[in-house]
Amino acid sequence: MIEMKNVHKEYSNGVIAVDNLSVNIDAGEFVYIVGASGAGKSSFIKMMYREELATKGDVLIEGKNVTDMKQKEVPFLRRNIGVIFQDFKLLPRLTAFENVAFALEVIEESPKKINKRVLEVLEMVGLKSKARFLPNQLSGGEQQRVAIARAIVNNPKVVIADEPTGNLDPETSWEIMRIFEEINTRGTTIVMATHSQEIVNKLRKRVIAMENGQIVRDEHRGEYGYEA
């Protein structure tokens, strides 16, 4: 599903965020990306959906090289990738329903399909009853659930989450993780950058640990680990 070959990312200020990294992630996997701040986690995952462009090397999603992709092709790439952020990134003047629907409106789905699908995913994340609430009327955990609904409404093959529980209390974090597990059980590949040692150690998945832009450990059913 995701393949990186000798990927290097250097920013204009000379900082090397990813250094000659190669990795494969199979369809249906659930992968944690762990490491200290500045280890290269965010750059690593941003290159998957072309928020950042690799300086050298190849990033392939389902065999398609993201690095060589023309700008006009990027929206089509992102239809198959759901992205979830730590700070939710909801549109403040739109309701929960409208925030989720927006992802379908931009690809010109019919109003009938939009209504049906949005209500389905809001029910899946436990927020159907709050479909008409604005973001500022929702708790942090509820806003994150709206963000998850928006990310999965297109039935993406891959969901990329950057510290999705970073701003949430422990109980809410576990609620969010249960949703991720359900999404993964349905066959969606999940790549999640996290600093949460407790989540990684309790919900044992594949762990890719990064340090100085390189992978220092790659374990199936791994732990957070001291070296990360």
From TrEMBL:
A GO-annotated cellular component: plasma membrane
Compartment(s) of residence: Cell membrane
Keywords tagged on the record: ATP-binding, Cell cycle, Cell division, Cell membrane, Membrane, Nucleotide-binding, Transport
InterPro entries for this protein: AAA+_ATPase, ABC_transporter-like_ATP-bd, ABC_transporter-like_CS, ABC_transpr_LolD-like, Cell_div_FtsE, P-loop_NTPase
GO biological process: cell division
Gene3D superfamilies noted in UniProt: P-loop containing nucleotide triphosphate hydrolases
Domain ABC transporter, first and last residues per copy: 2-228
Membrane topology: Peripheral membrane protein
One GO MF term attached to the UniProt entry: ATP binding
Pfam families recorded: ABC_tran
Primary subcellular site in the record, as a coarse category: membrane
Recorded family membership: Belongs to the ABC transporter superfamily.
Assembly notes: Homodimer. Forms a membrane-associated complex with FtsX.
Function of the protein: Part of the ABC transporter FtsEX involved in cellular division.
Protein name from the UniProt record: Cell division ATP-binding protein FtsE
Species, as recorded: Allobacillus salarius
Lineage: Bacteria, Bacillati, Bacillota, Bacilli, Bacillales
